[in-house]
Amino acid sequence: MADYILELRKTVGHRCLLQVGASVILEDQAGRILLEKRTDNGLWGYPGGGTELDERVEDAAKRELREETGLTALSLTLFGVFSGPETHYVYPNGDEVSNVDIVFLCRDWAGDIVPQETEVSEVRFFTAADMPPQEQLSPPIRVALKKWRDQKLAK
């Protein structure tokens, strides 16, 4: 989570916060998606996190990708904005958020995968057909991943 959110948590505790997320669906040349297994809930997700005050969402998405995977996004394309009851989430520590997740697609990237050990236990590429089942995906990102998967399988 972003430092801004951590500072707010000192005041509001676990109460629900509106959180603006910046996330990246990264594809390799074969069209596979990079997913990471989160350490907080043990579920798969894509790189992303909260934006800081006055931070551009594109910069936040690139920062989160770099922090969590060691990879550098060379270009990003807006994939979608996801919000509503489907992105509402209570973290295992009890922190509650209503997410607005701004998700970017990245097909142009560089670097070697170096997972951030405190947040990521495993990193893998998946095809649309072999993605983990819904119940193994982190709940707030299921809608975005379903959209990505459906688009891939429709081709």
Descriptive notes:
Strands 1, 4, 5, 6 and 7 form a five-stranded mixed β-sheet that branches. This protein has a three-stranded antiparallel β-sheet with strand order 3-2-8, with no helix packed on it. The mean pLDDT is 95. 30% of the residues are buried. Helices cover 23% and strands 37% of the residues. Strand 2 and strand 3 form a beta hairpin. It has three helices and eight strands. It is α+β, with helices and mostly antiparallel strands. The radius of gyration is 15 Å and the shape is globular.
Please give the number of β-strands. Answer: 8
Overall geometric form: globular
What is the rounded distance between the termini?
35 Å
Q: Helicity range of the residues?
A: 10-25%
Summarize the helices and strands and which ones pair or pack.
Layout: H1 3-12, E1 17-26, E2 33-38, E3 44-45, E4 48-50, H2 57-69, E5 72-82, E6 88-90, E7 96-110, E8 120-126, H3 142-154
Parallel strand pairs: 1-7
Antiparallel strand pairs: 1-4, 2-3, 2-8, 5-7, 6-7
